[in-house]
Design a protein that fits this description.
Helix content: 10-25%
Strand content: 35-45%
Largest sheet: 10 strands, antiparallel
Order of helices and strands: HHHEEEHHEEHEEEEEH
């Protein structure tokens, strides 16, 4: 990765759409893509905007889950499994279970907890999730346009904003999302570059693909996986070739009293 080998942060949760949109979505089932594009562009933007707002307001700390992480940087492979326990007090919710297929050493545990502590200080104890990109920043809703539509999905293109890599670099990124009609949530997002770009001096990214996949459990939309592929060069001579993937599993909702026993 670039400089200190930090991974690009990935935002991974989207909320369900408002229930009032159900009838409107169902009524579009047999509408052609051309008609949809002509008469429902504004509705498409409203639909996605409301989905983003719902995500931003979702209580994400109430779901315990596991994360399996994998990263390959120029052949240097690492992996880990982490557990988030929503029933524990703030500051004690994250546990590193495995590191490169083995039980982590005490030193690795301390390093991991120090990293989590820094994230808590940055985001506040009420936002301990590993998602640090705001969807309101990532998806420029004013640029949403219909790509295609079939029986099950609506596909929409949008321009991407990633402030951490700079405004000029973001101009070379484009996004495609898929909206699940039946279950009424955004099932996937794919971001890719349209041309090489330089997020910082002496670095050129020739290929960048980020994929987010989501699942719906009850009324909650939760991450399923996210993957990043990045290629390019650093200081003209050093090759950048990285693949990373996070897989989320075994979600379990914790009640309010389990999160706060004093509420009993």
């Amino acid at each position: 990765m670039l400089v200190q080998r930090k991974k690009w942060p990935c935002v991974l949760l989207l909320a369900t759409l408002a229930s009032g949109l159900t009838t409107a979505v169902s009524a579009r089932e047999n509408v052609s893509p051309a008609t949809f594009a002509a008469t429902n562009s504004l509705h498409l933007k409203t639909m996605i905007t409301e989905a983003i707002s719902a995500f931003e307001n979702t209580e994400r700390n109430s779901w315990s889950h596991y994360i399996d992480r994998y990263e390959n940087e120029e052949g240097d492979i690492s992996s880990s499994t982490e557990h988030y326990d929503a029933g524990q007090p703030a500051g004690q919710r994250w546990t590193l279970l495995t590191l490169n297929g083995k039980q982590p050493s005490d030193k690795a545990q301390r390093k991991y907890q120090q990293k989590r502590q820094k994230q808590r200080e940055k985001n506040s104890e009420n936002q301990e999730q590993s998602f640090s990109i705001s969807l309101q920043e990532l998806i420029q809703t004013a640029t949403l346009t219909l790509n295609s539509e079939d029986t099950h999905f609506v596909y929409a293109n949008f321009k991407v904003s990633l402030p951490r890599i700079g405004e000029d670099a973001s101009k070379h990124l484009t996004g495609l999302l898929s909206y699940n009609k039946q279950h009424q949530f955004i099932e996937s997002i794919e971001i890719s570059n349209t041309a090489p770009f330089s997020p910082m001096f002496s670095a050129e990214i020739t290929e960048l693909t980020i994929q987010f996949n989501f699942q719906k459990i009850d009324s909650a939309v939760l991450p399923l996986s996210n993957q990043m592929t990045m290629k390019g060069s650093w200081a003209f001579f050093t090759e950048i070739n990285e693949v990373s993937k996070d897989t989320y599993r075994d979600f379990n909702r914790i009640s309010d009293t389990e999160q706060n026993p004093q509420a009993k």
